[in-house]
């Protein structure tokens, strides 16, 4: 039996908190909760090097418990290439890797994920690439493929990982950053900004893939709205995004990072 803590979208730099102080406080809380594995589903910061340092510091202080993270779109903005993101850069980085949880039959599969514009299929004849380049933060992310091609790589990676887990008769928890189900997408009756932004939220094909392989648990981030866990097509979906709290945008229910982190943290017991 292992207790697993889930969180995403910590945005240390946007939220202007001291990582060293917050790491110490998180570790103390996770130890009190007897957590054996801490999973962060992307967007630790806007610089990949900083995100790695945060994860490594958490791992050092939380040991013997384990820490794993994947990269969200914000982690990809600086200090890392598209090619490097596809490699095992550090033991705490779980993209296209898996971790078998000792003492259980569970396997954690990590994949950064991406998008294929599939959630914006209500809009016809739109140039989503041009819109992204003009209005979306991801326009500065180094990229060697088109968005649909990049998603196809993600889809292939996850398909292979899930097939291997099925062959090994493992229970699976998938950690990805982008949205896998249409139930989390908000549509409006006009052509406002967010109808176009739905194109870069993720892909409904991932939810279909998870249903095909009967994945029991999926944790993701990217959307900063606060959701209760949802049971969809026999899969439990957890979006535990912390989100932003600054002078322009407040997505928190409290005014304190650690208070909000404890509110958003989800702890599961894997047996």
Automatic annotation (TrEMBL):
Any Pfam family hit: Metallophos
Highest taxon in the source lineage:
Bacteria
Q: Taking every annotated instance into account, which residue ranges of this chain make up the domain Calcineurin-like phosphoesterase?
A: 3-225
Q: Give this protein's Gene Ontology molecular function annotations.
A: hydrolase activity
Q: Which residues form a coiled coil?
A: none
PANTHER family named in the record:
[ACYL-CARRIER-PROTEIN] PHOSPHODIESTERASE PPTH, PTHR36492
User: What's the protein here called?
Assistant: Phosphoesterase
The opening ranks of the lineage are:
Bacteria, Bacillati, Bacillota, Bacilli, Lactobacillales
